[in-house]
Amino acid sequence: MELTLRPTHKQHLAYQALNDPEIDNVFLGGGAGGGKSWWICESRLVNALRFPGYKSFIGREELKRLMQSTYLTFTKVCAFHNIPQGTYKLNGQYNYIEFSNGSRIDLLDLKFLPTDPLYERFGSLEYTDGAIEEAGEVHFMAYDVLKTRIGRHRNKEFGIRPKLAITGNPKKNWTYIVFYKPWRDGILTKGLSFIQSLYKDNEFTSDDYEKQLSQISDTATKQRLMFGNWEYDDDPTALMKYENIVDIFTNTVENNDEKYITADIARFGRDKTVIKVWRGLEVYLIKTYTKQDLTTTAEEIKKLERDEKVPRSHILIDEDGVGGGVLDLLPGANGFIANSVPIEVNGNKEQYQNLKSQCTYMMADLVNGHKISIKNVEQTEKDFIISELEQVKSKDADKDGKRKVIGKDEIKEVLGHSPDFADNIMMRMWFILKRVAEELAPDPYFDTYGTYYKD
């Protein structure tokens, strides 16, 4: 059986990258209508027919949408190439496409599950190669794990290098950090390839598609889907600019020798316990735990206190929920109650709804001013921190009254998890405000970037 491929120019570049021995992961991304899904499906089909017994996967954040969109595209690709009936069939029970020559393409649900945060459900799978559709919807850990599952099924026999093909529209998550921004800046990591593809790059797109995209009313959505704009600013209520958030991991800040520990304790075991150790305004150590009892958590904090030589008075525990139990085990440490009254600074505390709002606005000020730094952090944690800080937004900003921020539960609805990393950073502001309020030695960070609170 012979297939005649008619790729667009951008699809051709993506195929070249798949054949390049120096490239491991190929990202064909940009706006809608650029032929991304077609390339994913066609490249799987070609290998499945060419190499009997080949095994690949196509994964997406939600299996239902994978079936409704990507699999539908797969059937169109087969029809375009006149693939004879009976060459392949869908196993709807176990979600894979089976070919008459023994090849197989698994259809994977990549949804993040709190019960499986490390995607261990994919740990024993073995594939020749694979593909991720709409990677902007997918958690970084899924990408990180699936990279290790390819190159494990008859690659040497077939002469196929283990390649991960990826598609996606602009999204401010790991796809922006790992692929787009380094590509834009000319510093893309060796082994990675990024090809920008828009609807205008696809001569097979219907004539009406441009009109349909131009009629999108939401500005941010139009920028993403029509123009492939990765730098869009989609929410005026966001308190921090995206690039300022990303810069946290490369900022160099002036620090004194004072160390602090902030701990956001998991509420009833549902979320993460996140503990950060600070040197001034630089986080240099992060510890995360799940489903850990209060006594063990308290002992972990005591160990960090000893090892890092942090004074007990420089420890702050989230006192809401079960955090109060940890605080009871650490006499001399401080408690943070998000809904308590703001700290009075220069005779003024009335402009904020509560302590959390006050600390959140100060955190946003410092992040936008490149005054906070986080070092020694893994990519998975970076992904959590960035996504959580992106969701830090003002509430009722168009109304008169006290400054407010959206609540933890609202953020959790968007992210699917509690903003434990962001809340932990926010808590560090308490020490700055407390020092100034108690008229101790002036806090250098407040003096440097605290003019907002003196207005």
How would the blueprint of this fold be written?
Layout: H1 9-19, E1 25-30, H2 36-50, E2 55-60, H3 63-80, E3 88-91, E4 96-99, E5 104-109, E6 130-132, H4 140-146, H5 155-158, E7 164-168, H6 174-184, E8 192-197, H7 209-214, H8 219-225, H9 242-247, E9 259-264, E10 272-279, E11 282-290, H10 294-308, E12 315-318, H11 323-328, E13 334-336, H12 355-368, E14 373-374, H13 379-390, E15 394-395, E16 404-405, H14 408-415, H15 420-427, H16 429-437, H17 444-449
Parallel strand pairs: 1-7, 1-8, 2-5, 2-6, 6-7, 9-12, 11-14, 12-13
Antiparallel strand pairs: 3-4, 4-5, 9-10, 10-11, 15-16
Helix pairs in contact: 2-3, 12-15
Strand content: 15-25%
**Cα end-to-end separation:** 75 Å
Q: Round the mean pLDDT to the nearest integer and report it.
A: 87
Which secondary-structure class do the elements indicate?
alpha/beta
* Low-pLDDT segments: 448-455
Taking the sheet with the most strands, its summary is: 8 strands, mixed
How many alpha or pi helices?
17
Radius of gyration based on Cα positions: 25 Å
Per the principal axes of the C-alpha atoms, what is the gross shape? elongated
Count every beta strand, where a strand is a DSSP E run of 2 or more residues: 16
Order of the strands making up the biggest sheet:
3-4-5-2-6-7-1-8
Helix content: 25-40%
